[in-house]
Amino acid sequence: MRARAAAVAAVSTAAVLALLLLFGGRGARSADAPRIEFRGAARSVGGSCLVVTAGGVRFAVDCGSLGEEGGGELPDLPDSLAFVILTHAHTDHCGLLPRLFEAGFDGPVYCTRATARLAPIMLGMIRGISGASVARAAFDRTIAGFSEVPFGREAAHGGVRFRFRRAEHLLGAASVELWLPAGDDTVLLVVSGDIGGGNSLLVPPAEIPARADYVVMESTYGGVVRAEAGGSAPGREKFARAVGEALEAGGDVLIPAFTLGRTQEVMAVIDRYQRAGVIPPESEVYVDSPTAHKITAVYRTLREELSEEARNMYPGEPLRFPSLREVRSRTSMKVHDRRHVPAVFVTSSGDLSHANSPRHLMRMFEDRGNLLCIIGWQPPGSLGARLLAGESPVLVRYREGNENLEEWIDPELSVESSAAFSGHADAAGLLGWISAVRGTRKVFLVHGEERNAKALAKSIREALGTDVEIPERGAVRELVPVRGS
């Protein structure tokens, strides 16, 4: 009996020790595990912001605003952030940086070369729209804080190593590989940023990270499969033929386009198809956004950052072609009063909500020979969305001089849409991207409306068997080390 009791006691002790080792060891490792906080773009689009704590260092990946007025949520304790990593220059990823500096942050903002040139332009635009809500000193500190890191080169700050990979979404846009210290281990976190649709004429193709332990991934079009997979040549030619036919018939074409990325892609496509004769070479192309002019100047300066296709297309200065007229708003508006040839107007804003787009529309809507070509996502209820839905009459709000005007109109011009310029991968593209990232333990889906995120989560689980979560805003998750990272 004593021997049996001793044996039972020995087994019990061994079991307890094993449990202590198992759970105690996990607890120790968990204490060292990096943490990630989902501060923005959770179950929504806009305001992208992740806060990561690893090895005693706290930093943010992106600090984006909601809308061009610069609203959104700042990370808690901004003065405790050691640095920021910025994936690209769109305002929904960088728009709150001036407010972050004003609230006490004073570290570097790491980004690619093109992003360091483009983001200040976009932040200046927000500052102008919002009426300089951030003090000039804070704005200046923000601009001075940008620190360039070349694609593919590993950098480090406070024990955190990171590397930018091309995301194709926009000139300078990046996915980020992050090696996070976790006690004696390392966690490899990949943040996708916004993933391009494989259809850019100007920007090099995406470079998919080879592996990851955890992935934070965008899901903007996670529930959408485009008819023209990947956009590229078929979609661009269809767009060009629609524009060319309207011009050949003597009409004008209005293309409302977002100033960063979309406008430059449209310019290049029009140039290409004018050379091919699909768009009449004699037609003039007016671009009248001051912000777009500044952005185009960056594209021209950073010629080596462009795709091989674009460099071959432009052996000299990029985005210079005979029919292009980069003008002030007043000049392009006067063309409607007296013009000699049919014209294309590439103008902001992309959803016709402000700036010059509605002003052009008011000069074009009565002529059924004219064409309005919508090339970007239209927020529900926006003027662009209502026109696409065929609403008539429709209310147009616009500004002429110092006056804010509004008028009900019955549009006679044709309205078409094109997905050829989408800066985001569709559901198939997103699934292909994550399928190429080996070793992924878990995927967190952000930057997408809940229905699109759920659709993508279902596809990833079914195709790859990978654990997927769609975190809520404010959620905090530990990234438990995976041996061998």
How do the helices and strands line up, and which of them pair or pack?
Layout: H1 2-32, E1 35-40, E2 49-54, E3 57-61, E4 83-85, H2 91-94, H3 97-102, E5 109-111, H4 113-129, H5 136-144, E6 146-148, E7 155-157, E8 160-166, E9 174-182, E10 185-191, E11 214-218, H6 232-248, E12 253-256, H7 262-275, E13 284-287, H8 290-301, H9 308-313, E14 324-326, H10 329-337, E15 343-347, H11 357-364, E16 371-374, H12 383-388, E17 394-400, E18 403-409, E19 414-417, H13 427-435, E20 442-446, H14 450-464, E21 467-469, E22 476-478
Q: What does this entry look like structurally?
A:
This protein has 14 helices and 22 strands. With 485 residues, the protein is α/β, with parallel strands linked by helices. It has two domains: 33-225 and 423-478, Metallo-beta-lactamase, Chain A, CATH 3.60.15; 232-417, Rossmann fold. The protein has a seven-stranded mixed sheet with strand order 6-5-4-3-2-1-22. Strands 7-8-9-10-11-20-21 form a seven-stranded mixed sheet, covered by helices on one side. The longest helix has 31 residues, at 2-32.
